[in-house]
Amino acid sequence: MNSPAPGAPWEKLLDGRFDSKRPGRTLWRLFDDQHGRVAGAVALYIVKQSPASLMPLAVGMIVDVLTNGGAFSKILWIAGGYFLLLLQNPLVHTSFVRLMSGALRHMQFNLRSALVERLQQLSITFYEEKQASALQTKLLRDVDAIDGLCRHLMHTGLNGLLVITYVTIIALVKQPLLALYFLVTVPAGIALLKLFDRRFREQYQAMRVETEQMNARVGEMLQMLPVTRAHGLESIETRSVRSVFERIRDRGLQVDTLTEFFASSSWFTFMLFQLACLVFSAWLVVHHRISVGDAVMYHTYFGMLIGAVQQFLGVFPALAQGADAVRSLGEVLEAGQLENNEGKPAAPSPLRGELRFEQVGFSYPQGREVALSDINLTIAAGETVAFVGESGAGKSTLVNLAIGFRQPATGSVKLDGRDLRELDLRTYRRQIGVVPQTTLLFNGSLRENVTYGLDKVSDATLWQVLADANLADFVRALPKGLDTPLGESGARLSGGQRQRLAIARALVRNPRLVILDEATSALDTESERLVQEALVRLTKDRTTLIVAHRFSTIRHAHRIIVLQRGRIVEQGTHAELLARAGHFHRLAQLQSVSHTPPAAEIRPIGTTGN
After folding, report:
1. By CB atoms within 10 Å of each CB, which of 122, 182, 194, 598 scores lowest?
2. Residue 440 CB coordination number (10 Å)
3. Contact at 8 Å (CB) between 550 and 599?
4. Do residues 284 and 386 both lie within one domain?
């Protein structure tokens, strides 16, 4: 992944400028590099809206000409001036939209770029607490909510502010008494906002949580479809998902009801104000304080003023939703679980591949039991070491410490004599290869999946890698060869083919350290044979760590480390551990390893077949 250019706009959102506790300030900061565009858009908006804002003034002037018996030529002059104002609107409006849309689209780009940048920086522990679909909701729905709020403010809010300004200035110039009456509507609007503010915040926050939960549940349903259908659980799963839909339906109804009650309350309040203005203007005409034209103008302007205040109030639900979206994004942009690699020296290149665990201890949060305790272990460069033990013994935790996904609570993990915490782990991980138990593939071509993250890999190199992974014949038989699309999550491949593709992905990087999380546990005999042969080529002359669930795959590892309740209880070769008749021997008997010889095995460097 390419790093952003120094000083990229979205980087400013990652250095403390994003403050979810102050949504208003944060919204302004989202446009830090777009202030010129925003200022230009505001100026153009004022110009383009001038015909609508000045229409009541023109109507009032024409009515006065008619009631006072003035010449028709005056009406033509007024109409001509108004026509000139109309002429500029199409061009100025288009320019305004282009500037405003450019600023908003750029804000979206910066915000989503900042989110992706931060998601790539967060430690693995962050993702254990967050569901992928909930994070996807933040990237899509919450950013769209902020964009919607900004559009409301740039259109509705700016128009309301402009109308209030026009009305106030004209009323102050022509009749200050009416101007004071007009301004009463603003405190009335503020009072309404205060009445509904807390309820809006609570309802929109609850709605966001329900939406995230719905997205997560739908994602789980789609992922579990094969299991659901295999066990005939369709009706149970449907009822479970429907209950989530019912909750969001009920919550949505509450939000809609609150929003419409707020809208109707504001409409009722301001219609009373408008009726009072009509009576007051008529009283002023009767007492010769203003002309009939002025009365028409004031009544029209007061109607516009009420519309403007209602527009402001109409922005409020979007404001509440946008503020909640800012708080939601703060869960990512302000998260403290960061893997800090900046400023640290790069890992040695090439690696020798020696790993040393010194007095390592590790505990999971939330009161879980100790995962590792007092681990002292040295893995020599080029050595193949397997970790075995019951579920929860600490095998995966130990490997995650070796990758740097987790940091030891006590002690240290050293790579070629250097503490992993002192190194830029990105430069270390580029030199390792990981073959997980479940291969993760994306909806791209076979070539793209194998060379993921690499700029240029020649076809010759790629075919050699595929041959080493026992995948070349299969790929040649495909209709488009290397460019054959794999489908979502590699759905068009069998389990054995996916595992061999993962091995090819590791081989193409020529790693110095290889980590295998039992790559053959769910394969048939023939697929296991092909995968094991590929693993022999992958691990040759490389430091290899194996998380073993099936002991048939580790018979010829240089060393086997037996873990129990986070401690090393035994270590040695396969034969040595069986001869001791200890914990490993008991586990091996449970699997009947000695009665099920593997079709192919991972062998130490320099060994040959039996």
Report:
1. 194
2. 12
3. no
4. no
Q: In this structure, are residues 380 and 404 in contact, taking their beta carbons and an 8 Å threshold?
A: no
Residue 1 DSSP code:
-
Query: Does 217 lie in the same domain as 268?
Result: yes
Phi, psi dihedral angles at 515 (to 5 degrees):
-125, 125
- Token pair in block for residue 532: 């094991």
Q: Please tell me the distance from the alpha carbon of residue 238 to that of residue 234, in angstroms, as a whole number.
A: 6
**Edge to edge, what strands does the sheet with 410-415 contain?**
370-379, 355-363, 410-415, 418-419
Residue 112's SS3 state is helix
Do 372 and 292 fall into the same domain? Answer: no
Together in a domain, 130 and 91: yes
What six digits make up the tokens of 423? 């190194």
For residue 111, which amino acid is it?
Answer: L
pLDDT score at 62: 79
C-alpha distances in Å from residue 252, one per residue of 206, 211, 218, 258, 259:
10, 10, 18, 10, 10
End-to-end CA distance of the chain: 44
CB-based burial of residue 253 (10 Å sphere; 0-12 exposed, 13-18 middle, 19+ buried)? exposed
Q: 177: how many CB neighbours lie within 10 A of its CB?
A: 12
Question: Is the domain of 273 the same as that of 376?
Answer: no
Nearest partner of 482 among 508, 509, 510, judged by Cα: 508
Packing angle between helix 185-223 and helix 176-183, nearest 10 degrees?
30
Cβ-in-10-Å burial (0-12, 13-18, 19+) of 592 comes to: exposed
Domain that holds residue 42: 20-333
pLDDT at 593: 43
**Contact criterion met (CB below 8 Å) for 40 and 48:** no
The answer to whether residues 281 and 185 touch, using CB atoms and an 8 Å cutoff, is no
**Which tens digit of pLDDT belongs to each residue from 119-167?**
888 888 787 777 777 788 888 888 888 888 888 888 777 877 777 777 7
Are residues 163 and 250 located together in one domain of the fold? Answer: yes
Burial of residue 169 (number of CB atoms within 10 Å: 0-12, 13-18, 19+): exposed
Burial status of residue 513 (CB atoms within 10 A of its CB: 0-12, 13-18, 19 or more): buried
Q: Is the dihedral of CA 522, 526, 527, 528 positive or negative?
A: positive
Amino acid residing at 316: F
The DSSP symbol for 35 reads: H
Give the amino acid at 379: I
380: which 2 tokens? 């020599």
Residue 329 CA to residue 380 CA, distance in Å, equals 44
- Using the 8-state DSSP alphabet, how is residue 444 labeled? S
SS3 287: coil
Residue 447 is inside which H or E element, if any?
A: helix 446-450
Q: What is the pLDDT of residue 606?
A: 34
Residue 80: CB atoms within 10 Å: 9
Query: Are both 467 and 588 inside the same structural domain?
Result: yes
Asked whether residue 370 falls in the same domain as residue 247, the answer is: no
C-alpha torsion sign, points 77, 80, 86, 88: negative
Q: Which residues of the chain fall short of a pLDDT of 50? A: 1-6, 593-610
The domain tally of the chain equals 2
Measure the CA–CA gap between 360 and 354, rounded to whole angstroms.
16
